[in-house]
Design goal:
single chain; 259 residues; alpha/beta; Metallo-beta-lactamase, Chain A; 7-stranded mixed β-sheet; 7 helices; 14 strands; binds zinc ion
């Protein structure tokens, strides 16, 4: 497999001969409002800066070229935006987390939308929807439902893309159940000014490492939308201090890994 970090949660995953685009946010830098009061959320860091904070590392055409399927883990703007809706062919295979999201995606013209299940199979690849929570306490309801996905194929290592979730017993159970060898974590510790983490921070990443010490972990969803609080440098320092730098990769946008 090959996993390319594009930007934020946007990944290109080549797996068992198929190319998946996950959580496409394809807008130009600064194209939409920051997460914060302007779009119905609480105050947030950098709420004077539009999203995305950074440009794509490569052209949209290059990113979507020969993509076989899209996976949208939830509909927040930093995972599914207007630029993606415009750029992608309307007949492309698209997986959504639930019927509600699928209906919303279909309403923008997409004709081939399927709800991810525990036992979805696409081109011989088993795709399993996984559980997560987009924060803790009151944030869970505010942020809404999310999912992750496990990829499994006899010719490939098992890949777990956790999505927008913090560390919790749900994630722990997914790791115990699927025993992934490769794990992608959304780890920018994005937050509003109150309520705590919406996705993983460095302590969450460490929990995942402890739950899967032999897995290769890749951290994404960093420094790309306004409410991030954990930088790549801070995370790299943390994993260096813990002595686990060889277990965890912190890619720059555009960087890719083969397994
Ligand atoms: Zn997100």
């Amino acid at each position: 497999m090959n996993i390319q970090q594009i930007r934020n949660a946007t990944l290109v995953v080549e797996y068992a001969g198929k190319k998946f685009l996950i959580d496409p946010m394809l807008a130009e830098k600064g194209a939409f409002p920051p997460f914060g009061p302007r779009v119905g959320f609480p105050d947030a860091p950098r709420q004077d800066q539009n999203n995305p904070l950074v440009d794509l590392p490569t052209s949209i055409d290059h990113i979507i070229n020969h993509v076989d399927a899209i996976i949208v883990t939830h509909l927040h703007l930093d995972h599914w935006d207007d630029a993606a809706k415009e750029a992608l062919p309307k007949d492309i295979k698209l997986f959504a987390q639930n019927e509600e999201d699928a209906t919303e995606i279909r309403s923008t013209g997409f004709k081939n939308v399927e709800v991810l299940q525990k036992d979805t199979v696409f081109a011989g690849i088993q795709l399993t929807k996984t559980k997560g929570e987009h924060g803790r306490g009151e944030l869970i309801e505010l942020a809404g439902n999310v999912c992750g996905v496990v990829f499994r194929h006899s010719n490939e290592k098992t890949l777990y893309v956790a999505g927008d979730t913090v560390w919790n017993d749900k994630v722990q159970k997914e790791i115990e159940t699927h025993k992934p060898e490769i794990i992608v974590l959304n780890a920018g510790d994005n937050q509003f000014l109150e309520g705590g983490s919406l996705v993983m921070g460095k302590d969450d990443v460490y929990e995942v490492y402890q739950a899967a010490p032999n897995a290769k972990i890749i951290t994404v969803h960093m420094e790309a939308v306004n409410h991030w609080t954990l930088s790549r440098d801070e995370l790299k320092n943390f994993i260096s201090e813990k002595g686990i730098s060889s277990n965890i990769s912190v890619p720059e946008d555009g960087e890719s890994y083969s397994f």
